[in-house]
Amino acid sequence: MPKAKKRGGAHQRGAGGQPRNVQPFSDEDASIETMSHCSGFSDPASFTEDGPEVDEEATQEDLEYKLKGFIDLTLDKSAKTRQAALESLKSAFSSKILYEFIMERRMTLTDSIERCIKKGKSEEQCAAAGLACLLCVQMGSGIESEEIFKTLGPVLKKIICDGTASVQARQACATCLGICCFIVTDDITELYSTMECLENIFIKAYPRDRDTNGVSSTPNTVLHISALLAWTLLLTICPMNEVKKKIEMHLHKLPSMLSCDDVNMRIAAGETLALLFELARETDADFFYEDMELLTEKLRALATDGNKHRAKVDKRKQRSVFRDVLRAVEERDFPTETVKFGPERMYIDCWVKKQTYDTFKEILGSGMQYHLQSNDFLRNVFELGPPVMLDAAALKTMKISRFERHLYNSAAFKARTKARSKCRDKRADVGEFF
C-alpha cells in the first residue's frame, strides 16, 4: 500500500514544529468579524434571513489570536515578514472597530511602528506610516492618541525632511503626519509646527522664475502633492486669523502649479484653490482676487482640455475636477454629493467637507462606509451624531424582496438603455461630450 501523505510539510513549520508564519488577514475574516462585532450597523441588503448562527465569542477570540500574531511578527528579523504583518494589521484596522483590543496594546503597536519607520526600507516604512494613520483613526481624539502622536510625530518629521530617504516613504510619512495631527492635536503650536513642516516641502514645487510658463514634474512631485493635500487638510481646522495669513501667502502662488505636466499635481492645486476661495469668502464676504480673469481663463482651459499628447483617462479626470473648481471660483457654487452607508445618508456640500472625506476614504478604502456607521470619531468629524442602532428585526423590515429588487433593476436598466441610445443616435444633435 502507498504511504499516506503527511499534512503540514517541513516548509510550513520551523524548528521544534512551531509554525513560522501566521495566515494573512483575509476579506473573509473581515466580513465575519464585521457582521458579528457590529450587527446593528449591517447593510440591510446584506442581511440574510436564514443564515447559520455565528459564535461571536469564538470568532472574536480567533480574530484577536490572529492579530496578536501579526503584532509579534512586526518584530521579526525578516523585512518581508514584518511588512506582511503590517499590511495584515492595516487590513484589519480599516475593516472593523477594534478599540478595546488596540487600547490594551497601543504602546506595543506604537513601538513597532516607530521601529519599522526608523529602521525599515521604503515599502516597510510606507506600511508602518499607513498603520499609524489607522491606529489614530481607531483611537480617535483622546489622551491615548496624543501619546501616540508625541512618539511618532518627531520620527515622521525627520523622515519627511530627510533627502536621503525614498520619495515613497517621505510621501507616506507626510500624509500620516497630516492625518494624525488632524485627529489628535489640540495644541495650536503643534498644529502650526506641523503645517510649517509640510509647507516647507510643497513650496519647492513653486517655480522660482515668475515668467516660467510651465512647471516640470520631478521625482519629488508625488511628495509635493501629498504635503500640499495634508497641509490643506490641516488648514480646515485652523483659526480664521491664521487662515487669512495662509491665503495671503499662497493664493497668488498656487495657480503656477496648474501648469505642471503632472495631472495629479494640477488636480491637487485646483482643489486647494477652490478650498482657499471658499475659506476666503467665509472670512470676508467682500473678498476680491485681483487676477480673477487670468485664473478663470486657466481653469476653463483645464476644464475643456483636449491635448492629444495627454492620456484619455487623465483628461477625463482633469476635466471633471476642474469643471467643479471653475464653478467654485467663478460662481461660488459646489455640486452636492450624497454618500450612502447602511440606512444613512451624508451630504457633502462644501470643499472643506470634500477634502476631509477624500482624505479618510484614501486611507480607509472599502472600510470607509463601515467606519462612517460605527466610528465615533469620524461621525463627530462629519456631524453625524451617535451611531444608529438597528436590531435584526428592524433590518429585516428594511430589506426588500428579491422580486422587488428584480423589478427595480429591470426599470433602471431600461431607463439607462434609453438614455444611452439617444446619445449613440448619430442623427441626434448631441454636441460635444467631455
TrEMBL record:
Residue stretches of biased makeup (Basic residues): 1-10
- The protein's superkingdom reads Eukaryota
Q: Which residue range or ranges hold the Interferon-related developmental regulator C-terminal domain?
A: 375-428
Q: Which InterPro entries match?
A: ARM-like, ARM-type_fold, IFRD, Interferon-rel_develop_reg_C, Interferon-rel_develop_reg_N
Instruction: Report the residue ranges that make up the Interferon-related developmental regulator N-terminal domain in this protein.
Output: 34-330
* UniProt region (Disordered), positions on chain: 1-59
Membrane-crossing residue ranges in chain numbering: none
Alphabetical GO CC annotations of the entry are: nucleus
| Coiled-coil segments | none
SUPFAM superfamilies membership: ARM repeat (SSF48371)
Key words of the record? Developmental protein, Differentiation
Q: Name one GO biological process term.
A: cell differentiation
Q: Has UniProt tagged this entry with the keyword Transport?
A: no
Q: Provide ranges: composition bias, Acidic residues.
A: 50-59
UniProt lists the family membership as follows: Belongs to the IFRD family.
Subunit: Interacts with PSIP1/LEDGF.
Name under which the protein is recorded: Interferon-related developmental regulator 1
| Species annotation | Asarcornis scutulata
